[in-house]
Amino acid sequence: MDKLSNILIVAGTHGNELSGIYTHKLIEEGLFIADRSTFSSTSVIANPTAVRHQCRYMDNDLNRQFATRSDATSCPSNEALLARQFIDKYASNNNQLIVDLHNTTSNMGATLILLSENPFYRKMGAYVKQRMPAANILFESHKPWNELPYLCTCGEYGVMIEVGAQSHGSLQYGTLELMKEMLTAVLDFVEKHNLNQLGELSNYTAYYYTQEITYPLDSSGMRQAMIHPTVCGRDFEAVKPGEPLLATFFGYDVHWQGEQDVYPHFINESAYSKANIAMALAEKQLVSVNKP
Ligand SMILES: [Zn+2]
């Protein structure tokens, strides 16, 4: 793979996720150094109106607008328009990596979300895991690149950093530190990749997204269950076959029906409340770094 010559650091894709927005501010003020000897970094706010209003989005989720170019309508939503402008400005830049910064209300610590399994990303996961052993590496590589709706997939290369748990609209010292630490590791990885200085990287365990679990609803759209107390707050901890995922209000539980252990994450993410998504599930796998 070619050397990367520019890193586009994106914050405020969701306007109420403050770790990225304040990382952007630190970069602008020279308090966080995002350049390296082999590349320069550009830091941008993706949805300034939502940032000003301190909300996730104005009309709809900007981070779900990038699967395909939406048809031109006479009255596009604020975010559809932003997505088009973003694509026009950045998507065709060569040798650019987009790093999109997010917060989650789920207890996911620092999670690097990789959307492809090509050797570059497998190595990035290995390097970040080596630098931050407590970090989670999550592959969402179940769809082809151009079918993924995320902002960071609008160009050739992109990843997301998720840090939490942090309430949207709030700013926590430890969560900002985790974001800075993971962003630093990604930037250092690119520098070493460019210099051919990655050296020996070890195989590692990562999570692979499989599905979402939604709440059962009654006829009026109210939930009939909550996250089970044995799962609540335990992102990336194993749930074995037959163990509960949800606790209904009727005294029985909803159990995991699969044949393998699963690893819930984005548990009780407040931004997914509207869609009644209780959690996402992943499988755990060993990643071979040197597989071609
Ligand atoms: Zn977000």
From TrEMBL:
GO cellular component, one term: cytosol
Domain AstE/AspA barrel-sandwich hybrid, residue spans: 203-284
Ranges for domain Succinylglutamate desuccinylase/Aspartoacylase catalytic: 5-189
Keyword match Zinc: yes
Active site (catalytic residues): 162
EC numbers on record: 3.5.1.15
Pfam families per the UniProt record, alphabetical: AstE_AspA_cat (PF24827), AstE_AspA_hybrid (PF04952)
Cofactor(s) needed: Zn(2+)
NCBIfam families with a match to the protein in the record: PRK02259.1
Protein name: Aspartoacylase
Organism: Vibrio brasiliensis LMG 20546
